[in-house]
Amino acid sequence: MRRAVPWPLAPQLPKLVDSPPAGEGWVHELKHDGYRLLVRLQGGTAQLLTRNGQDWTALLQPVARAFEGSGLGDAVLDGELVALDDQGRSSFSALQRTLHAAPETLYVYVFDLLAAGDADLRGVPLLQRKQALKALLPGVGRIRYGDHVDADGAAVLAQACALGAEGIVSKRATSTYHSGRHDSWRGKCALRVDLRVGGWLSRNQALSALLLADPDADPPRYAGKVGTGFDEAERERLLGLLRPLEVDAAAVADPPRRARGDEVHWVRPELSVEVRAAGWTPDRRLRHPSYLGVHVDRGAGVALARPAADRAPPRVTSPDRVVYPALGLTKLEVATWVQRMAPALLPGLVDRPLSLVRCPKGVGGACFFQKHRENLPASVLAVDIPGDDQPYVAIRDEEGLLALVQHGVLELHPWGARTDRLDRPDRLVMDLDPDEALPFAAVVAAALALRERLAALGLASFVRTTGGKGLHVVVPIERRTPWAEAKGFTRALAQAMAADAPRAFTANPKKAARKGRIFVDYLRNGQGATAIASWSPRALPGATVAVPLRWEDLTEDLDPQAFTLRTVAPPARDPWAALDDTRQRLTKALLSGD
C-alpha cells in the first residue's frame, strides 16, 4: 500500500441504474450538479484535473490556493466542483456562468481520499477512506466534505428529488476504488447527455430553441429540440457561437419538420452542449430536455474557431496546438477568431508601433514581450524609431495581423501615436489598476469619477475593459501636444484624484501604495509606452478579451471576465463609433492647470 498513486488518474464512475440498490451494505451520496475534479496536493502545490484529464489549475487558481492553504498535506482527492444558488443547491448553469468569471465563489465537495502522504488508499474499504477524509477536512471553508447517508436507497432518492438535487450515487461500503465505470458505484439521476447543436429556431429574431444532434450516429442524427434553460444573456451568447457555423441545408440526419411561426437556421454540428432530460423516446428523441450549458470540459467552443462561410480559413502551422489549456482552445481556433474580429481589431492597430506578447507554446508555456521586428515575416512592417537602431513592429492589414498570430502573438499593445507622427500622441490612456482585494464595482465607480473630471475639463472620454480587473479610460486628442506635456497632464490628473480621495486612489506606482486603493496609472502616456488594444485577447488562462464599451453599459454588475474568446463575437455596432470624430485638444490652459 506504500506506493505512489498514478497521476493523471482516471476517476471511478458509477454504473447507471433505474433504481438505487436495496439491502444493507450500501451508502448513498447526493449527486452534485457540477464538474468532477481530481486534486493532487504535493509539496504544498495543488494540481486540479477534470474527469477527462484537462488541467484546470490555472483556470481555478482560487480553488487551488484554497487546497494549498488547507493543511491537508500530500494527498489525492476526488470530488465535485460546484456553484451554489441562494438555496444552497448546486447549479450547473450557475457554474457555467462563474467558472471563468468568478472562480473564487466556487466550492468543491470532496467525497473520497485516494492517497494520504505516500500511502495509496485505493485498496482501503470506502468507509475507512471516508472516515480518514472527514477527519482531515473540517473548517476548510470552500472545500467541503461530501457526506453520505446509510439508509434505504429509495427513501434517500425520494428525499434528494424533493430537495431538487441531481440524483444520488450509491456506493458499496466495503468497496475499493476502481478507475472507470464499476458496479460498486451505482448512479440514479436525471439523464445528462452531451449533444451537438444542428441548428436553432428563432422567433422575432430571438433564439427560441436549439435543434440537437446525437454525435454518436454517422452522420449525426436529430435528437430533439430544447427550448428551456436559457436566460436572455445565454440566448445572445449562443447566437454569437452559432452564427459563424450557419449553412444552407440541414447537416443532420432525419431533420424535423419546420415548426409554424419559427424560422429554422441550420449549422455545422460542431458546438457541444450538455442537456438534462427525463430519458429517450423509442425513436431516440429526448424526453423533456432542459439546456445546461456549452460543455467547456469537452473542448466545446469550436464554433468560435471557424470563419464565416464566405471566408477562407487561415493557414497556420501546428493548428491543433492547445494555446489556452483551461479552455482547450487551439492555435487554429485562436487564428480564426482573430480573423473574424479583424474588422474590429485593425482600426486600433494599423500604422501604430506595436509591442507584442508572444506565447509560442501557448499560455501554459513561456511567454515573452517583443517590440522589435526580428524573426517576423515580410507582411509585418518595420517602423524606424529615433534613438533605436532596431525597427519596431507595425501592421497595415489582416494579412499582417494573422502573421502575428501564426508566430504565437496573443496580446497586441499599440502606441498612442501613429507611425507618421511618432512625437505627437492622438490618444491618452488612464489605466485604473485596483488592489486585488477591491471589487470590480470600485473600479467602475473610479472610471465614472474620472469621466466626470475629464468632462469638467471639456474632454470626452471612452472606456474599455482590459481583460483583467481594471479599466482603461481613453481620451482622443488632436496631434498637437508633445509626449512630455501629454504625460505631465495625465500625471497631474492622477495626482488630483489621489489628493481628493487619498483612501480610494494613488498616483504612486509602487505596489505597497496600492493597498486597498486603485492606482491611477498615467505612465502609459510617455513616448514608447503602450496599452492593450481594444478587442485584443490576453495571454491569461481564461482567454479574456479587452472590450470597448459604451459608458451606459458600464455598470456595477458588469463582469469583465465574461468577455472571452468563447463569448466575444464581432460587434453589431462599434461602441466607440464616435471616437474618430471627436475633435479636442489639450489647450495651454489645461496643460498649465489653470
What do you see in this structure?
There is one protein chain. The chain has 10 helices and 32 strands. Mean pLDDT is 87; it is low at 297-312. It starts with 11 loop residues before the first strand and ends with a helix. It has 594 residues and is an alpha+beta fold. 44% of the residues are buried. Strands 11, 12, 13, 14, 15, 16 and 19 form a 7-stranded antiparallel beta sheet that branches. It is globular.
What are the key terms here?
seven-stranded antiparallel beta sheet; 28% strand; globular; six-stranded mixed beta sheet; 594 residues; alpha+beta
The coarse silhouette is globular
Distance between the termini: 78 Å
Q: What are the segments in which pLDDT stays under 50 over at least 5 consecutive residues?
A: 297-312
Strand share of the residues?
A: 25-35%
Q: What is the tally of helical segments?
A: 10
Mean pLDDT: 87
Summarize the amount of helix as a percent range.
Answer: 10-25%
Largest sheet: 7 strands, antiparallel
Structural class computed from helices and strand pairing? alpha+beta
> What oligomeric state is this?
single chain
Q: What is the tally of beta strands?
A: 32
Based on CA atoms alone, the radius of gyration comes out at: 27 Å
Summarize the entry for a quick read.
This protein has 594 residues and is an alpha+beta fold.
List the helices and strands and how they pair.
Blueprint: E1 12-16, E2 26-30, E3 35-42, E4 45-50, H1 61-68, E5 75-82, H2 92-98, E6 107-116, E7 119-120, H3 126-136, E8 143-145, H4 153-162, E9 167-172, E10 180-189, E11 191-203, E12 206-214, E13 221-226, H5 232-242, E14 246-247, E15 263-267, E16 272-277, E17 279-280, E18 286-287, E19 290-294, E20 322-324, E21 329-330, H6 331-345, E22 354-358, E23 368-370, E24 381-383, E25 392-394, H7 398-406, E26 409-414, E27 427-434, H8 440-456, E28 462-465, E29 471-476, H9 483-500, E30 505-506, E31 518-521, E32 548-549, H10 588-592
